[in-house]
Design brief:
Radius of gyration: 18 Å
Number of strands: 12
Number of helices: 4
Number of domains: 1
Largest sheet: 10 strands, antiparallel
């Protein structure tokens, strides 16, 4: 119990109010990175939507709904014509949404860093990291969904970073007009150079 208290006080827990309609939850969808099948399916969609031979220095998958297991947006950081670009894709519509050039500070690390073809990125470790992270969540909280998951190669080595959305046990949902309001919290995790997973600390 003492160890759990230390972990709880050493991390940043950001409190949000989440308006969540339970009919929107897509549990078990092919975008659920926490499952082996889901992580494989999301890679297949990335290859289909963006291209397997597309070389990226970073890829981030994000969910629009805070308590849904479905990931809707993919943002890649990549090089093109000597420029460092950030391009977002709508995975639901399977199309490019927006592209912009990175600022000089971010561009420097991208242009000097490693890149990886999307088809060569190993997604098999992703559900393992999420499962391990769930076991590290303080016991008074309950795992709900992945807010975002980033795989980064910019520093010439792979680093995984992700945010999990959790709810506090015993905190009930409130009805506000015709909407159900739920408090949720975010906990960040990242891999170290030796491959171990740690909870973000302040």
């Amino acid at each position: 119990m003492r160890k759990l208290m230390v972990l709880f006080t050493s991390i940043t827990m950001l409190i949000f109010l989440c308006v969540y309609n339970t009919s929107c939850g897509l549990v078990g969808s092919k975008h659920d990175l926490s499952t082996v099948e889901g992580s494989k399916a999301i890679k297949d969609e990335l290859v289909s939507t963006i291209g397997g031979d597309k070389e990226v220095s970073q890829i981030t998958l994000s969910s629009i709904e805070e308590l849904s297991t479905q990931l809707d947006i993919a943002v890649i950081t990549h090089q093109q014509g000597g420029k460092a670009l950030s391009t977002s894709y709508d995975l639901n519509a399977q199309r490019q949404a927006m592209e912009s050039e990175l600022n000089k500070l971010l561009a420097k690390s991208v242009l000097k860093g490693e890149t990886k073809k999307i088809e060569d990125i190993d997604f098999s470790s992703v559900p393992k990291h999420i499962e391990q992270a769930q076991k590290m969540i303080p016991e008074e909280y309950q795992y709900e969904a992945i807010q975002n998951y980033t795989i980064d190669f910019a520093d010439n080595k792979r680093k995984d970073k992700f945010l999990l959305n959790v709810t506090k046990k015993g905190e009930g949902k409130e009805l506000s007009g015709k909407q159900i309001v739920t408090n949720y919290y975010q906990i960040g995790f990242e891999t170290q150079s030796d491959g171990t997973l740690v909870m973000n600390e302040q």
